[in-house]
Amino acid sequence: MKRLLLLILACALLAVLTACGGQETAAPAADGADTAGEPAAEPAEPATVEEQIALVQSLIDEPIDRLYEAIDYPADSAYASSCLGEGEDGELYYDGFTVYTYRDTDGSETVYDVMPTETESGQ
Predict the structure, then answer these.
(1) Average pLDDT of the chain, as a whole number
(2) In what order do the strands lie in the sheet with 88-94?
(3) Most CB within 10 Å of its CB: which of 43, 48, 95, 104?
């Protein structure tokens, strides 16, 4: 009887170990590549206008390149002499909001503010 009980326990242990053996997981590599050698997926662009505005708000006082990396280039833009300094004020027009920038005389440009676009129903 003891042999039968030991045999059953050994089979149960073997079954558990076999079932768990195929579920190995690994942490992603620190260099941005997953364990299969494929590059890690880029973070998804924010889906809604509100999410994009929140992201841009987090980029205020950051270089304009960070904005372009986060949400891409605007559909259109306009620049005029600045009241903030010797550079130019920029308006970058995105679908649903406008990003305001300051471009200094040395060419460096930073995010200054963001505002939702007025809609006809909101006027």
Answers:
(1) 76
(2) 76-81, 88-94, 97-103, 109-116
(3) 104
